[in-house]
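Is this the right way to post C-alpha cells for a design question? Let me know if I should format differently. Anyway, here goes:
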C-alpha cells in the first residue's frame, strides 16, 4: 500500500488520466441530459437506494463527480470503504445523527464531553428529535439503553485537547456505532476506523481545506452506512458545492506536510507557554502528563497543532494585544488562529457544563499555523507580557465567579 503522502497526492484522481487532464475538473452542472428517460429513472432509483454511482448523475443533489473524487481520496486516507461529503461539518454531524437514530428507529444518543460547541448544542437542543446523555469516556457503557443509536466522541477534543481511548469507548458502546470527530487529528495523525469507530467525521473547513476559504464536512465509513448517509443527504439537501469539493480535494495533497510542519511549531510553542509566568495550564498532547493512557504512538501518531492554555490575565485582553496571530474562530488554517472558547465557539454550552468538562472561562485555544515559529512566539510573548495585563485586578476578581460575558468584551 502506498504511503500517506502518496495517497494524499494521488487519491481520488484515478480517472484523470483517461480524461486527459492534470487538474480535477470542476463539474458545475445542476442537471444532466438524459435522452433515455427510462435509464435516467433507473439511475435516480439507484441513488435513492443509496448508491455511490450510477450511469448518470441525473441531478446535482444526487451526485457530483468533483465531490466524489474528494470522497474517494478521503476514504483512502481514513482506510474506510467510502466517504460522504456535506455542505459543512455540522451538516455532516446532523446526517450521522439522523442516519443512526431516526432511520433505525432509535432516539437516544450518548455523547462524551467536551465536544465542539456546535455539536454539543445540536445534541442538547433536541432539534433532531433525539435525547442525549452525556457521559465520561469510561462510563459510556452505563449510559447505553436499548434506544441508543449512536455514541459521539471527539479526540483530541475541542477545545481542551482531552484524549480518549477510541477502542475502549467502542468496547463500552457494545453494538452501538461510535462516531469519532477526527477534525483535530486529521487522517494524518489518527484513523479512528482502525480502532473500531463506525463513523469518522471531519469538519473539512479546518485542516482538509486548510486555507480558510471553504466550508464543508465529510464522513468516512463502510459502504452500508455511507449508503444511508447519501440517502439522508439527497432528501435533506445537505450537499457540498463542487467548488468546495475541489478545494478540499486539493487541500488533501498538502495535508500531511501542513500538519507535520504546524505540529512541529505547536510542540515548541506548547513547551514555551508552559514556562511562561502569565500562563496557567497548557493543554497539548506533547506535554508531560497530557497522555496518561499512552495513546500517543498507539492511537495518535502525533500531538497535532492545536493547543489550549489558561491565562492569568483577562483572555480577551491577551487576544487584543496580538498583532500577527489572527483573532478568529476556526482552526487548521495556514495562519495561526486564536479564540476564546467560553465567549465564542463554546458560548452556547452552559457555563457549569463547560467548567465541569475542563473548559474554564480563562482558556484560549490556539491553532498553530505555518508561519515561522519565532514570529508566532514573539507575538504571543508580547501579548502575554503586557504590563497592563498583569495588573488587571478587575479580571482576577471577576474570575472567582463567572467571568461576565458581553458583546463588548468579545
Ligand atoms: C468546526 C468543527 C465542526 C463543525 O464544522 P463546520 O464545518 O464549521 O460546520 C465540528 N467539529 C469540530 C471538532 C470542529 O472543529
Amino acid at each position: 500500500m502506498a504511503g500517506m503522502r502518496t495517497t494524499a497526492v494521488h487519491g481520488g484522481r484515478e480517472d484523470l488520466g483517461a480524461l486527459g487532464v492534470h487538474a480535477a475538473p470542476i463539474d458545475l452542472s445542476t442537471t444532466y441530459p438524459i435522452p433515455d428517460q427510462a435509464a435516467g429513472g433507473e439511475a435516480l432509483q439507484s441513488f435513492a437506494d443509496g448508491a455511490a454511482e450510477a450511469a448518470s448523475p441525473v441531478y446535482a443533489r444526487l451526485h457530483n463527480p468533483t465531490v466524489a473524487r474528494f470522497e474517494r481520496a478521503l476514504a483512502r486516507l481514513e482506510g474506510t470503504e467510502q466517504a460522504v461529503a456535506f455542505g459543512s461539518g455540522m451538516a455532516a454531524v446532523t446526517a450521522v445523527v439522523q442516519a443512526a437514530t431516526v432511520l433505525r428507529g432509535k432516539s437516544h444518543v450518548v455523547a462524551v464531553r467536551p465536544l465542539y460547541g456546535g455539536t454539543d448544542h445540536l445534541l442538547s437542543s433536541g432539534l433532531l428529535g433525539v435525547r442525549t446523555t452525556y457521559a465520561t469516556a469510561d462510563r459510556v457503557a452505563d449510559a447505553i439503553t436499548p434506544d441508543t443509536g449512536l455514541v459521539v466522541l471527539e479526540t483530541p477534543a475541542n477545545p481542551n485537547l482531552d484524549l480518549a481511548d477510541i477502542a475502549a469507548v467502542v468496547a463500552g458502546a457494545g453494538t452501538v456505532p461510535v462516531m469519532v470527530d477526527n477534525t483535530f487529528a486529521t487522517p494524518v495523525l489518527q484513523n479512528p476506523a482502525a480502532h473500531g469507530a463506525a463513523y469518522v467525521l471531519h469538519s473539512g473547513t479546518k485542516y482538509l481545506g486548510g486555507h480558510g476559504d471553504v466550508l464543508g464536512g465529510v464522513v468516512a465509513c463502510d459502504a452500508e452506512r455511507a449508503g444511508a448517509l447519501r440517502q439522508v443527504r439527497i432528501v435533506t439537501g445537505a450537499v457540498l458545492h463542487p467548488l468546495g469539493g475541489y478545494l478540499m480535494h486539493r487541500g488533501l495533497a498538502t495535508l500531511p506536510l501542513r500538519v507535520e510542519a504546524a505540529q512541529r511549531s505547536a510542540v515548541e510553542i506548547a513547551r514555551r507557554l508552559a514556562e511562561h509566568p502569565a500562563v496557567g495550564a497548557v493543554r497539548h498532547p506533547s506535554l508531560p502528563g497530557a497522555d496518561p493512557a499512552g495513546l500517543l504512538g498507539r492511537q495518535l501518531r502525533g500531538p497535532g497543532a492545536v493547543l489550549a492554555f489558561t491565562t492569568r490575565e483577562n483572555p480577551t485582553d491577551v487576544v487584543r494585544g496580538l498583532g500577527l496571530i489572527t483573532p478568529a474562530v476556526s482552526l487548521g488554517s495556514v495562519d495561526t488562529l486564536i479564540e476564546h472558547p467560553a465567549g465564542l465557539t463554546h458560548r452556547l454550552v452552559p457555563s457549569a457544563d463547560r467548567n465541569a468538562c475542563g473548559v474554564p472561562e480563562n482558556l484560549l485555544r490556539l491553532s498553530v499555523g505555518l508561519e515561522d515559529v519565532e514570529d508566532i512566539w514573539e507575538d504571543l510573548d508580547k501579548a502575554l507580557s503586557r504590563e497592563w495585563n498583569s495588573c488587571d485586578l478587575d479580571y482576577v476578581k471577576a474570575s472567582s465567579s463567572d467571568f461576565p460575558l458581553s458583546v463588548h468584551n468579545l
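Format looks fine. Someone answered above. Worth noting: The chain has two domains: 28-253, 255-392. Residues 88-90, 116, 118-119, 154, 158, 181, 183, 203, 205-206, 215, 217 surround pyridoxal-5'-phosphate (CB under 6 Å).
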